[in-house]
Design brief:
The protein has about 400 residues and is α/β, with parallel strands linked by helices. The termini are far apart. The structure holds pyridoxal-5'-phosphate.
């Protein structure tokens, strides 16, 4: 049989030879003068954030791998004490298993392919699966043959206060979730109920409300539940958006958890909160037209959230050779490299008024959903990766690293 060759749709981030390490983004730019987008990773910031979250959360912490699956980021999360991984695909399961033979992997996608369930169960030692419908329960039982199974029912939440609603597509309504808990109980060595309040959720009370609903569902189900998974969604700082400190979210979770039956174990699945500060992307200005800057990365690259979702990111100019820059600032719009007119990032991006071709812009807080969302559209998928040890451009309260954040 012919071997099918799998080719990645997106070029992997390139390491020119051995991983380049410099103290700061400026030193890295001076050394590499990058003409392609340069992802500057900060593994230490990720390790610090993971450690802070693990220390604060009263239960098991699962890292949501989709948020950033770069091996250096996964290693940094693990170094912070995270030993559980929330995976959503066969490829994520394989990657995590290849890196961490002893890690606990949880398959948290509510609609899985049969092949992915089989491989996870039979080859990769995965025994926890999420579901939000009867049909998925049947599929999991058929493909695993049953045994030491953890079954987690995903509960849909009413639309809340997060930047991204994650209940529009997945999750069972409360009555249905109660019925699924009853149906799954006889097959589950561990039975759980999970929810996701939505990504970048600024309101700690969203977790208290969700836990109160979870408690009602468990009572309605009338069966014992071993785990409640409070999902991800923990916010980080972006310009003009300062979340309450981590402790406020933990207090809200403790308040909600008090409504659960005694002995229930808590899980959380943070993504963004652990890795957002862990990468800056350095883009280069290829042309200036008035207030418009044409740069070498955009919404089909690492800057997806700066496009239609309108997220603002900390940013600053890096000029080659330390040449002086204008003291006066001005607001710019960035255009990405693809031919699509939607490849625009309105910002506003406030930069020295004399920005010119060849200048670089460091864009911070891109460790979450930056690298992970790159595409090969129009052939603009080349990017380099390097490691720096300066502090993230913005700090998020409660995840503080030893070094103070730099002003954006
Ligand atoms: C995306 C996702 C997460 C991580 O969400 P963040 O907002 O990045 O914390 C966790 N759990 C599930 C089920 C998800 O889909």
């Amino acid at each position: 049989m012919t071997q099918i060759r799998l080719r990645g749709a997106v070029a992997p981030l390139r390491r020119p030879g051995a991983t380049q390490r410099r103290a700061t983004v400026d030193a890295m730019v001076a050394a590499l003068r990058p003409e392609e987008p340069l992802h500057c990773l900060r593994p230490q910031a990720v390790t610090d954030a993971a450690r802070a979250f693990v220390a604060a959360f009263p239960g098991d912490v699962l890292y949501a791998v989709k948020c950033n699956a770069e091996p250096a980021m996964l290693r940094a999360v693990a170094a912070g004490g995270v030993a559980h991984f929330d995976c959503a695909s066969d490829a994520e399961v394989r990657l995590v298993r290849s890196m961490f033979p002893g890690a606990a992997i949880h398959f948290m996608h509510p609609v899985k392919s049969r092949a992915a369930i089989r491989a996870a169960w039979a080859q990769h030692g995965v025994s926890d699966f999420v579901l939000d419908a009867d049909a998925e329960l049947t599929k999991i039982l058929q493909e695993t043959g049953g045994g030491d199974l953890g079954l987690v029912v995903r509960l849909a939440l009413p639309k809340g206060s997060a930047a991204y609603d994650l209940s529009g597509k997945f999750g069972a309504a409360p009555a249905e979730a109660a019925a699924l808990l009853r149906a799954a109980r006889p097959h589950a060595a561990r039975l759980g109920l999970s929810f996701h309040v939505g990504s970048q959720c600024m309101d700690p009370a969203a977790w208290t409300r969700a836990l109160a609903l979870a408690a009602e569902v468990i009572a309605a189900a009338g069966v014992a539940v071993d785990i409640v998974d409070v999902g991800g969604g923990f916010p980080v700082a972006y310009p003009g958006s300062t979340p309450p400190p981590l402790a406020a979210f933990m207090a809200a979770i403790r308040d909600g958890a008090a409504l659960l039956p005694p002995g229930v174990r808590l899980w959380a699945e943070p993504g963004r909160a652990l890795v957002a500060g862990g990468a800056s992307v350095v883009v280069q200005v290829q042309q200036r037209r008035g207030d418009a800057l044409y740069v070498n990365d955009g919404v089909y690259g690492a800057l997806s959230d700066a496009g239609a979702p309108g997220f603002r990111f900390p940013h600053r100019l890096v000029r080659a050779g330390g040449d002086p820059v204008a003291a006066v600032a001005r607001d710019f719009t960035l255009f990405g490299p693809t031919c699509d007119s939607a490849d625009v990032m309105k910002g506003p991006w406030t930069l020295p008024a004399d920005v010119r071709e060849g200048d670089w812009i460091e864009v911070g807080q891109l460790g979450a959903y930056g690298t992970a969302l790159r595409t090969a559209f129009n052939g603009f998928d080349r990017a380099h990766v390097a490691e720096v040890s300066d502090a993230p451009m913005l700090a998020t309260a409660g995840y503080d690293t030893a070094a103070p954040a730099r002003a954006a």
